[in-house]
Amino acid sequence: MNDFRNDSLASFLSQLAERSPAPGGGASAGVTVALAAAQAEMVVAWTTPALPDVIQNLQSVRAEALDLAVRDADAYGRWSLLRKERAENDPELQSAADEILRIPNALAILSLKLLRECVRLATTSNPRLGSDLGIAGALAAAGVPAAGWNTKANLHLVKTEDQDQIQNDLFEQESEAKALLIELNALLLG
After folding, report:
1. Of 81, 64, 79, whose CA–CA distance to 5 is shortest?
2. CA distances, 82 to each of 54, 58, 96, 120, 130 (Å)
3. The whole model's pTM is what?
4. Which of 27, 89, 122, 155 is most buried when burial is the number of CB atoms within 10 A of its CB?
């Protein structure tokens, strides 16, 4: 397991830059969403009255995003090894392929949850931290198409009859992220 959660940022970036299958884009997407959650958490920490439930929720999102980043790196590394050793119809290889498609979907859903929270916070948080909340929202919104890229890159692993539904789901997620980001900008800059 390549658990980089406790590594320094410099160490993670060095691992990401290496010529290896993982960590890659999925790990980057997960870390981006974790950064968004931490940024939003900082905004809430400066908000009066205190919002401990919101902070706890944002901490949970941050931890889940990092977990997805690590799981993505592990899943992709596992799939890369198995595809060299196993037949295409091998159940373990198929399970690994399913996992590298489940993780980005979970990250896109988490990104949207965080982006909705940023929109909600735009009317209740410290207005002096609008740029920080805007950055949190932009990073959360970026998690959706980033997760989508990972899904699209691995769409060939999905049965042909299921590909259209997955692409429709990606389109809906990306459309919602764009609309939420526009709403957040209007609230913060309006």
Report:
1. 64
2. 41, 36, 8, 44, 47
3. 0.92
4. 27
**Torsion from C-alpha of 19, 145, 147, 3, nearest 10 degrees:** 60
CA 185 to centroid of chain Cα atoms: 20
Q: Could you please report the per-residue DSSP string of 7-53?
A: S-HHHHHHHHHSSSSSS-HHHHHHHHHHHHHHHHHHHHHT-SS--HH
Task: Indicate the burial class of 61 (C-beta count within 10 angstroms; 0-12, 13-18, 19 or more).
Answer: buried
- Confirm if 111 and 147 have CB atoms less than 8 A apart: yes
Q: What is the pLDDT of residues 128-178, one digit of tens each?
A: 999 999 999 999 999 999 999 999 999 988 888 989 999 999 999 999 999
- Exposed/middle/buried for residue 144 (C-beta within 10 Å: 0-12, 13-18, 19+): buried
Q: Using CA of residue 174, residue 53, residue 63, residue 34, what is the dihedral sign?
A: positive
DSSP-derived 3-state class of residue 4: coil
| Domains in the chain with CATH codes | 23-189 (1.20.120.680)
